[in-house]
């Protein structure tokens, strides 16, 4: 089943030589860990892997139109989210928390209009998170706004 184009591309791929069967990825590394973009697509968003060193907090920002899914694949962490703005009494919205672990993988939505952060709760183990965003990151229109949770 499938289109002619899909079958043609599958045939092309079946003939790739070994030196074309892998591709290097660019890791952005600093004292907190690393962020690696794995795949960008025009219509299906961006997949990335984030590695956070023990005790590190990442994020502390929100997006207008971008939403993300986080899946912790190794380690133990805490995801926190808070709706931007304040309620009818002028109080900031409360944060919600999700304890996450590679031992029991689950997907957590990072919602538009919600500041979010992920904290590595370990003092000895890296936190490895698979991330998906509905749109690729573009520096000239980042849609990322600093905000503590």
Q: How many domains comprise the coordinates?
A: 1
Beta-strand proportion: over 45%
CATH topology: Jelly Rolls
Segments where pLDDT lies below 50 for 5+ residues?
none
Percent of residues in helices comes to under 10%
- Continuous helix count: 1
Structural class: mainly beta
User: Major sheet: order of its strands?
Assistant: 1-2-3-10-5-8
Terminus-to-terminus distance? 48 Å
Major β-sheet, in short? 6 strands, antiparallel
Radius of gyration (CA) equals: 18 Å
Strand count: 11
User: Under the CATH scheme, which class?
Assistant: Mainly Beta
CATH architecture: Sandwich
Shape assignment: globular
Describe this structure in words.
This protein has 149 residues and is mostly beta strands. It has one domain (24-146): Jelly Rolls (Sandwich), CATH 2.60.120.10. Helices cover 7% and strands 46% of the residues. A six-stranded antiparallel β-sheet has the order 1-2-3-10-5-8, with no helix packed on it. The radius of gyration is 18 Å and the shape is globular. It starts with a helix and ends with a strand.
